[in-house]
Here is the input.
Amino acid sequence: MHELLQFFIRNSKWFVFAIYVVLSCMLLFTFNPYQHHVWLTSAGQVVGAVYGVSNNVTSYFNLRENNEDLNRRNVTLQNEVLALREQLQTLREKYTDSTDVMPMAHHFDFIVGHVVNNSVMRPYNYVTVNKGSDDGVAPEMGVIDQNGVVGIVNVVSPHYCRVISLLNPHFRLSCKIKGDESFGSMVWDGKDPRFAVLEELPRHTVYHKGDTIVTSGYSAVFPPGLPVGVVEGNNASENDNFFSLKVRLLSDFTTLNNVQIVRNNNMEELRRLDAENEKTEGNDNDLGGK
Here is the structure.
């Protein structure tokens, strides 16, 4: 305490000077309109700059949370789109005789996940997502992002899953040109991660550069009409009955971040039906051989 008092005594003149300066500034900026305006303007600029820096820092650290929120909103919108497609199909069946209707897709829903590992330059590429069996993920579920199809789940642990990327020749996806019922098989040729090849299209298929390629719906993995890519041009591989198209993929696999895992709630029923069909075909073959 004695040393503190000695400190104030030794520096008393500086404390008195500081007090006079503060009082002078208060009197100057309070009772002089011009100086008061300058003070408010300068103070506002400083405070605004501080708030701006603070907001930028806060926004940076909230980017992941904001992206996940946007992804959840996107899932909600996709569910609404699927519900509208179901209603549209019902109305078309009720009021028209047209068979050109959208397949029912109301039994699909989505699980939001985050990519924790990804490869794009290997011959066979995979994606790891931070959702697993504890979150309802199972093998043979489709994976998409906000732009298009990403791949299909093949290995699942309690908290993670491994996805066969579309940039993997082992993955083939049934697709068609939007507005045309002819379908083919999308596969990566192992060259450029931006492009894939839509093979086995019938020769009579009409297409134009820039046409959108979408999922055909002829599988239990993806709903129909999900975007995959756009037509770049005719591929070199052709024969008398079929031809191929070069397709620019809509998903940027080099920047994958948030994804959505597509869950078909009727998958088990479809598997049981397939098993019954195989059993029936086996019995028919046995009868034919007798």
Q: What stands out?
A: The helical segments are 2-10, 12-31, 33-61, 63-95, 267-289.
